[in-house]
């Protein structure tokens, strides 16, 4: 240890308290709010610092049990604290702490606010849910820029009915909460990032002119109608494994990258015939006939697209009938849906992608995929009136070399793709179809 540090240690000098306020506040912002408050007893310098930290982390961990006395504005410790007890003994205790904290903190500006719902024993009768709404309103009043609300223990117990009106909020993360129709994100004038995981979406429409990045994973949408997405400034879209009805995408002229995956829990499936009955009596198809396009029109300006679906999910195949021109599309990833019934969907998408440079086809699941062979064995359209002049790479990923792969290879060749640009990957082994 250097001599200067030895002298400071020997003299009991408090070197941390001599640091600039900005550095101390940054340090406090890394702590849970309860831990930040407890620093008020360290020294006179620390007594009020916690009030001005730019981060409010209303979370609960296994730690010591504390409380705030709002009248004395000081932290009260219990000498008989049991270190094996949870930090907060109940939801009521947690609510009391946060309520006192908000009163003492006033409206000091916030950069980040993190709210974790308390693990109430009975998720259906959580008594402090309305209090959480007030915490969110408080954060918005403090000009919060990043808002993170999550519930690791309940089943979408929190129904957000707070008016999200802010000129400062830029990022929102939501997990295991519900959004009702009264929530209007368009009132957040500078909101750029929205991430939702395991959320219930009860809204008829979600809109924002400022939003640039949207990530939705395993969210629950409405069953009777499609939720409309209106994001004219969106650059990046990630929509993965949604439940019930696939949302309807309105035009997104600035879109650069999109990932869409429709898996088992999506209700947009048809088990009748070839999966294209479109009858009101069909539980899977009902609701589609009101729209010409659900997804593809909204994705038409993307530069990079990844469109994945189980073979019986019909949305992409139906959209192809009104397929727009993908005038900016350079990279495209498709899976079994585009060859599930015949090759029409694949040919149609290629035809409408004039500057496509890289194509990846993932044909890894033969379950529920019908034969592409017609009655007379005519697998390739008689005439392909277009060529993929810009296509530099075409990757076919499959489990085995079968007739379907052979047909895809012939279609690509008929579109003017040179054999050297086509590669086939089988179980991590790449080979080319030279001589086919």
UniProtKB/TrEMBL annotation:
<dbReference type="InterPro" id="IPR036047">
    <property type="entry name" value="F-box-like_dom_sf"/>
</dbReference>
<protein>
    <recommendedName>
        <fullName>F-box domain-containing protein</fullName>
    </recommendedName>
</protein>
<dbReference type="InterPro" id="IPR053197">
    <property type="entry name" value="F-box_SCFL_complex_component"/>
</dbReference>
């Amino acid at each position: 240890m250097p001599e200067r540090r030895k002298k400071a240690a020997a003299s009991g000098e408090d070197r941390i308290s001599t640091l600039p306020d900005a550095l101390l506040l940054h340090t406090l912002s890394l702590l849970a709010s309860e831990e930040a408050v407890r620093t008020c007893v360290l020294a006179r310098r620390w007594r009020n610092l916690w009030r001005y930290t730019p981060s409010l982390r209303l979370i609960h961990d296994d730690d010591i049990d504390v409380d705030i006395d709002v009248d004395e504005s000081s932290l009260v410790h219990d000498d008989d604290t049991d270190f094996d007890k949870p930090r907060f003994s109940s939801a009521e205790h947690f609510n009391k702490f946060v309520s006192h904290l908000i009163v003492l903190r006033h409206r000091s500006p916030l950069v980040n606010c993190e709210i974790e719902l308390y693990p109430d024993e009975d998720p259906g009768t959580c008594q402090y849910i309305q209090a959480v709404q007030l915490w969110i309103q408080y954060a918005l009043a403090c000009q919060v820029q990043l808002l993170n609300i999550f519930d690791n223990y309940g089943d979408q117990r929190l129904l957000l009915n707070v008016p999200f009106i802010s000129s400062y909020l830029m990022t929102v993360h939501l997990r295991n909460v519900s959004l009702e129709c009264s929530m209007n994100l368009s009132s957040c004038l500078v909101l750029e990032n929205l991430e939702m995981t395991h959320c219930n979406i009860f809204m008829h429409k979600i809109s924002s002119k400022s939003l640039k990045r949207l990530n939705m994973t395993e969210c629950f949408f409405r069953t009777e109608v499609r939720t409309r997405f209106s994001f004219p400034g969106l650059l990046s879209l990630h929509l993965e494994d949604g439940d019930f009805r696939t949302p309807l995408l309105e035009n997104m002229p600035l879109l650069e990258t999109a990932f869409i995956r429709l898996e088992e829990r999506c209700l947009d499936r048809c088990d009748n015939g070839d999966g294209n009955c479109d009858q009101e009596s069909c539980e899977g198809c009902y609701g589609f006939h009101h729209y010409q396009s659900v997804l593809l029109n909204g994705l038409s300006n993307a530069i990079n697209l990844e469109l994945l679906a189980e073979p019986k999910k019909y949305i992409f195949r139906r959209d192809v009938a009104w397929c727009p021109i993908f005038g900016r599309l350079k990279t495209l990833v498709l899976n079994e849906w585009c060859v599930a019934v015949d090759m029409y969907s694949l040919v149609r998408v290629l035809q409408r992608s004039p500057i496509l440079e890289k194509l990846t086809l993932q044909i890894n699941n033969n379950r529920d995929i019908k034969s592409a062979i017609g009655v007379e064995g005519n697998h390739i359209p008689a005439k392909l009136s277009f060529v993929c002049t810009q296509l530099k790479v075409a990757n076919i990923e499959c489990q085995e070399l079968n007739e379907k792969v052979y047909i895809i290879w012939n279609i690509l060749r008929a579109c003017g793709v040179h054999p050297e640009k086509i590669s086939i990957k089988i179980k991590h082994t790449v080979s080319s179809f030279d001589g086919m």
